Amino acid sequence: MSMIVAQPGILSLLQDSGRWGHHRLGLSNGGPVDREAFNYCNRLLQNPAGTTAVEVSVGGLQLESKVETFICLTGANMPLSINGEDRAAWEVHKVIAGDTISLGFAQSGCRSYLGVADGFTIVPALGSTATVVRENIGGLNGDKLRAGDQLPCPVITTRTRYYLEDRLRPRYQKTMTVRVIPGYQQRHFSRAEQRRFFGSTYTVSERCDRMGYRLEGPAIRCNIDGIVSEGICFGAIQLPPDGQPIVLLNDRQTIGGYPKIGSALSIDVSRMSQLVAGNTVHFAPISHHTARRALHLAQRFVLGQSLQAR
Amino acid sequence: MLYVQEATPEEASLRVQAAVVAIEQVLGPDLVDLVPSYASVLILYNPLESNQINIACRVRGALKALPTLPKTAGRTIVLPVYYALEAGEDLQALAERAGLSVDAVIALHCAHDYRVYAIGFAPGFAYLGQVDERIAAPRLTTPRQHVPRGAVAIAGRQTAVYPSVSPGGWNLIGRCPVRMFNPGTQPGMPVAVGDRVRFEPISRDRFLALGGDLT
Questions:
Q1: Of A21, A25, A233, the CB nearest to B119
Q2: What is this structure's pTM?
């Protein structure tokens, strides 16, 4: 029982919540870059959190279902159709064997999550199904989806058809503020450089991927050229010698030697990963305490929403 | 992030190694992941389930009683290497620059144990130090697009075995038939940070018998 990839689109990757506990081998986390949309997808389908779904970047994925089940699309605004008929995102739909599920190209945001009831049945590699193409691990043979791939999934005949009310769905804008907890080598950036960093507008460059988002704007100079390589966490903001910030994402290298000015708040990094080249970002400094409060509030918001059923 | 300050890289590495064990013990299931490096340990926890002050207190407490590890701590892993021009394209050039014979370069590379200072860049890529000063070599000015799996290489005073085919700017001197990263096995790598590695020269036949690949 499976779905067949008719067209893989630009970049479609199987992802679960990520590969943890293996940084010591040099493995990155992988996992969904927009965790918020990914979590909503599984919640609407009544799957356990972290169930394997497909992350679709930009769009163009087409699947042929060989099985009766339920699907849901969340995240970027990509037109969804089943057998050529338009269907709403953020909503559970029934499909049967022979149905064709097609995604168009994103109109706002750039990453969406297509899940099925009980998830795709993929054999985990080092504890996770998350695909990291650079490391050739996870998913099907460590690679992005290709035409003809079979995605195994179980037959499901009944499931509540939940949907998320329009007013509660995230709105993906072209500009956003990313909250930053200053830290790491922060003291090696002068007050003037820090003011420039937090006072400027940065543009998302063409070089933005699942490893990191490279931004372009006023260069930020550091008093030191580099540091002894050390661990890098999700959202860390590196400033290489050219002074252009790089916000590090899921597929980042585990250690690095560029100075860092701080770490972006994880929920903001998730939202930032919906930006495309040419969109803009501002940075705002926040305290550790405020960051923790923001995380708890965001979690309450997502888990506290009651879902509606068709 | 935990930083250690010691007089030599080796002492710092021993301190990191001891801290990793202590942090794992004291944090238990609250520890999501950690990244040991040359002189630091990045500690990852879930901020929705634990709070920073609690984590920091427990880590500080554990570090107070940190044992001083002897230099012999960790395992010693012997990695066989086929040193030859057909296996290490830069061997001749490196020897010429050093003013040594190829055999002398090989002898110096095998002469002592290396410490695993950090793992990163790619899964299974272990940074080993320190290489004898006489055979230290700067990175290539133009990195290669395609370094084969198992390539043994030198950059500065560091040496490493490439775990998979990748681009790279290190000087290639030989080929190791042991896989440095295999996701199908536990723990996935023959070495860990803090272990010591000794290289042992082997013949072409032995290299091929051990599963080595010269293509």
A1: A25
A2: 0.91
